[in-house]
Design goal:
It is built from six helices and 26 strands. The chain is an alpha+beta fold and 363 residues long. The radius of gyration is 22 Å and the shape is globular.
Length: 363
Amino acid sequence: MKNKKRTYTIVGILLAIIALGIGYAAVTTLLEIDGTATALQSDGVKLEFTGTPTNSGTQSGNAITSTSGLSGDLTLYAKWSGGSNLATDFILALTEGASSSSTDIITATSNNNTCTNTFAYDGTTHNNLRYVGLTPCNYVKFNCDSNKNCEIWRIIGVMYGVDSAPVLKLIKNDLVGQSAWNSTSNNTWINSTLYNTLNTTYLQSLNANVVNDFILSVPWFNGGVNINANTPTTYTAETSSQSSSAYIGLQSFTDFAYATSATSTSTRNTCLNTRISGYGSASGCAANNYLFKTNQYELTIDKYYSGTTNAIYITNIGNAQRVTVTSPNYYYRPVVYLKSNVKINTSEGDGSSGSPYELIAGN
């Protein structure tokens, strides 16, 4: 669902609720979520009324604080407050109250109010929720070994149209190397050298649990891009075709472009409506974008729309340009989609660079 508020109906019994006046469920609650029965166990869900119970029970404001006299169906929503929660639900809940039909910048504090997040819906056919700005709280530990030594990645956003459920898209924070897009004059992604490197050598270098528990093998959007188009038109072109399934890809140019906050919602819209070959030259577009690597040339997954020998890269000032796929020494970063059942341990970290979120494998 694209709406962060889901329909929760009690179909079993609230076994207990900590009576602290704050209404946090700390034990098993049998609920029906969007029509599917499930049990939430000790995951810090705050249940609040949006309807009226058959018997009112005890409540403080809208929060349930006692099950005494509580029966019948309730329409509820959950506000994540701590513990291990589905990563997509947790991030969507941070934007609670914001309209998904608007592309305005959304500002929200983290669950413990220590880090300020900035988001925006992209307004595309998929209407992905993306982190935007220079310093959003989207740092996450990933590819951790048994001693909890981890790499630092960034959450691009909550993405739709990739899998049957919304999923998180991650990009490694640091550049990992330099390469040509391909060793032969062919801009078909699945036939490229970089595709092969990422999905063999690099994939095999990840810790064993990462592939099994965390990342999806899915088709990747790779339609041809015209650098004289603006960002929304480019997204339509990118998503017009897909490759066969793979675990690892690269960011698209629109992943990069939509990540700007510019200096305001108004100037951000100017950035997105600028032709992508001039995106970085427009005021504030690259300078307020956490994905921008200053003075580096970074490859994207996109191919050029005309011919078979060019791909798209991000220039050292943040513009989109085409490059012959056999040109060497361009930087790249791996990108993955997470499985929809991956959780965020919200008791650890706030998404800042000094305190990244911790990911937990789903059940």
